[in-house]
Design goal:
With 285 residues, the chain is of the alpha+beta class. The protein is built from five helices and 16 strands. The chain starts with a helix and ends in a 6-residue tail after the last helix. Bound molecules: calcium ion (CA) (2 copies).
Length: 285
Amino acid sequence: MKNNIYFLNRLLLIPLLFSLLLPFYSFAQSLAPIPDVGPGVCVSNCPDDTPTTTSCPNNCSGHGFCSRSLGGCSCDAGWSGSDCSINLVTFCPNSCSDNGFCTSNGECICDPGYSGNDCSTLCPNKCSGHGTCMDGNCICDAEWSGSSDCSISKEEFNTMLQDALSMSTVPDMTYMTTYDCDDFASDLERELDGQGYDASFTLIWRHDGMNNIGHAVTDVHPTGGGVIFIEPQTGMIIELDENMDGVVGFRDSTHSPATMLTEGMSEIEVYMDRAAAEVTGAPID
Ligand SMILES: [Ca+2]
Ligand SMILES: [Ca+2]
């Protein structure tokens, strides 16, 4: 009988121990990382943070899983939206023509060398990897602005242009009151246009506090962007970045009577040709 009582006590001890240890077990379990569950159903801490067995929106449409860490759907590649119902392949225009990445707001991010809202427009030579494709035209990086496909560097272009200038007869002309800077600039512009360059006519107004001293030079626009200025009386490429900020500031086709500086102490105005400058009222003799 004594033995039986002892046995009964031992039997009672087991549930007692269990009931004492259970809270520790539950606490330890609550510290364990909760893995994402999927697909579809969220067990707790769902988007509304209510501990229920409710699911993510539309059960993530079968194209993702319900993520506790995100508090919503984590969509499979190629799907987007809060319920993963947006097919990114067909959501963007023309599926980005297989030349770009479709974003969740329906816009294509085109691969290098392609442009257009559906990435269907190819730029020349894909801009040679030295520029950005915009509306079918390359916007070349500054150092690669020598050609429309950004394959010629600015330095190479300058070398070719300087070679062409060394053959020019305009710098050999004699400076006279009747044949002065605007005549040099205009004649060199026409000559370079004839050689296939996109040349135009530039006026520079230098300010010394009281007076505005005008000068005319020639400029050339490489097809990849930028402007190169030339002193037509010497046939040399000149640098007009007076304030040394890496760009030459100039006004396009407008003459403001020498009041708004565009570069250092100068106002630089680029015109299509001398006649276009005269039309704006710029004083040219
Ligand atoms: Ca003149
Ligand atoms: Ca500058």
